[in-house]
Amino acid sequence: DAEITQSPRHKITETGRQVTLACHQTWNHNNMFWYRQDLGHGLRLIHYSYGVQDTNKGEVSDGYSVSRSNTEDLPLTLESAASSQTSVYFCASSEHRGSMRNEQFFGPGTRLTVL
Amino acid sequence: LAKTTQPISMDSYEGQEVNITCSHNNIATNDYITWYQQFPSQGPRFIIQGYKTKVTNEVASLFIPADRKSSTLSLPRVSLSDTAVYYCLVVGNFGNEKLTFGTGTRLTIIP
């Protein structure tokens, strides 16, 4: 069955370190998204991609970067982790290139703690 | 991006019908209304989407009045497993939109 996976599921790191969170989907979806979820804020969009070599900034992109070298993967990199980036991170994908409207399929999440 | 307002929390008893209303006064012509459900420690899951009038699927109904400034998610005969956070989103079809889920409505089903 097609699925979307995230790794690691839990990560503890130190301030200033570079961290990469992996997201892999097997639906062959064009669109992929990264969100962060914090108490009191719901989910906020970090970055999104409508296809290979395409990346776009979301609402809270500062301190994060993504790259899309193939259809299946959209890794999220924290260049220099800060305590404010302690959060739960969700990856999602959807079909129909370029559309935000279509049903998004979410991964299980990665809980990141920055000490 | 149209701003949405929904109740922070709701309680209901098992077996009852639950209606969660979302307000979106500045919805645009090409915007659709979408609802997601999120259980603790899981990612959100799509429930239903609509543009106008009524949409029904196997888990919920979505009622949208003619002016589209609000919508109501209806969950028939809820069970304990429906305890979750429900998010209302209003979004158009194309990019450059800062898709935001907001804080949602925390629904608690009481036995």
Nutshell version of this structure?
Chain A is mainly beta and 115 residues long.
What does this protein look like?
The complex is a heterodimer of chains A (about 120) and B (about 110). Chain A has about 120 residues and is mainly β. Helices cover about 0% and strands about 50% of the residues of chain A. Chain A has strands spanning about 5, 10-15, 20-25, 30-40, 40-50, 55, 65, 75-80, 85-95, 105, 110-115. By secondary structure, chain B is mostly beta strands. Chain B is about 0% helix and about 50% strand. Chain B has no helices and 10 strands. Chains A and B meet through strand 5 and strand 10 of A and strand 4 and strand 9 of B.
Strand content of chain B: over 45%
Major sheet characteristics of chain B: 5 strands, mixed
Give Rg of chain B in angstroms.
14 Å
Number of helices of chain A: 0
| Secondary-structure element pattern of chain A, one letter each | EEEEEEEEEEE
Give me some keywords for this one.
heterodimer; A: 115 residues; mainly beta; 7-stranded mixed beta sheet; 4-stranded antiparallel beta sheet; globular; B: 111 residues; 5-stranded mixed beta sheet; 0% helix
Topology readout:
The complex is a heterodimer of chains A (115) and B (111).
Chain A: E1 4-7, E2 10-13, E3 19-25, E4 31-38, E5 42-51, E6 54-57, E7 64-66, E8 76-78, E9 87-94, E10 105-106, E11 110-114
Parallel strand pairs in A: 2-11
Antiparallel strand pairs in A: 1-3, 3-8, 4-5, 4-9, 5-6, 7-8, 9-10, 9-11
Chain B: E1 9-13, E2 18-23, E3 32-38, E4 45-50, E5 53-56, E6 61-64, E7 70-75, E8 84-91, E9 100-102, E10 105-110
Parallel strand pairs in B: 1-10
Antiparallel strand pairs in B: 2-7, 3-4, 3-8, 5-6, 6-7, 8-10
